[in-house]
Amino acid sequence: MTTRGVQKMPGAINAIRDLERTLSDTVKHRAFAAESRQDARREADRLIAEAQDRGSRAAERAREEVSSASELETGSIRAEADAEIAALHLWLTTERAALLAEMRAVAAPETFDRSDA
């Protein structure tokens, strides 16, 4: 009976074989796709980690540059302030001496006025 059914539908056997091959190929393709996705995930994770590492190093370099520039600017500001302080000190010392001389002249004019003697 089976032989007679097969003989009546020779294309059916070929269609079944084609279907089995297609199903087998589909399983293989799915396995390959899953493996490819895993490879892609690993590669993406590696690239992300590498980018984060490069970003961290770049941020550290930028922080060091800003810190160095800040230290230079702070030093420059301090030097300017020290120079201004020194100039003010000199000016105050000079003004103080002049004011003391004027106060002495007002307080004891006879010591400065030698024309009366």
From TrEMBL:
Biased composition (Basic and acidic residues): 51-66
Ranges for region Disordered: 51-76
Protein name: Uncharacterized protein
Gene source species: Cryobacterium sandaracinum
Species lineage: Bacteria, Bacillati, Actinomycetota, Actinomycetes, Micrococcales
